[in-house]
Amino acid sequence: MGDAGATYLIPFTALLAAALLFYDAGRRFAATVSGLIVMLGLYLGALLAVDNLAGRDVTDARSSLPRVRSLVATDVTLRRAFDGHFYSEVEVNGAPVRFVVDTGATVVILSREDARRIGLDPDALDYTGRARTANGEVRMAPVTLDEMTLAGVTMRNVRAAVNGGALDTSLLGMSFLRLFEGVEMRDNRMVFRAR
After folding, report:
1. What does the pLDDT look like over 161-178, one tens digit per residue?
2. Class of domain 68-193
3. Which residues contact 47 (CB under 8 A, 6 or more apart)?
4. How far is residue 134's CA from residue 137's CA, in Å, rounded to a whole number?
5. Nearest to residue 76, comparing CAs of 66, 67, 86, 65?
6. Which whole-number Å values give the CA distances from 119 to 44, 62, 111, 142, 179, in the listed order?
7. Separation CA 71–CA 74 (nearest Å)
């Protein structure tokens, strides 16, 4: 029974007190007590049924949401670097990788060097994708990262790509950032809001 159920016991307690005060003196005490026990059982059964229905509604609503909603418990705050960008170190497949946050990138983009650091062989990948950048079109190799961890929060099977051209710093794109409810800019800070 939830906290709300405890508040429903107040009317029942008043009913019980009234029944004990005004019961017919000619009746046997045992009959009165057994009647009150039946009433208590019915009342508690009704409360449990209401609590179960309410709990089922919440569970059903939660189960229809993406699983990642329950992973993030706290906001994550990044400070703006001197170059104007926001950087974050994220553990990828067990290895630390420094990313620049790029909310405009659909997926996580790894430099060839970072791909090697996490155990991928950039020379053996299929660069079947294309992406337009400020420096022109580059080839991309789609990959799936086993896991990424930021601030104690882990996301598995993250869509990503390895950049076929020159890339100084890997990009933390939306395939990972969707883990959060949203992004806010506050002064020189970027805040990823928890779900």
Report:
1. 999 988 999 999 999 998
2. mainly beta
3. 1, 5, 8
4. 8
5. 86
6. 59, 36, 13, 15, 24
7. 9
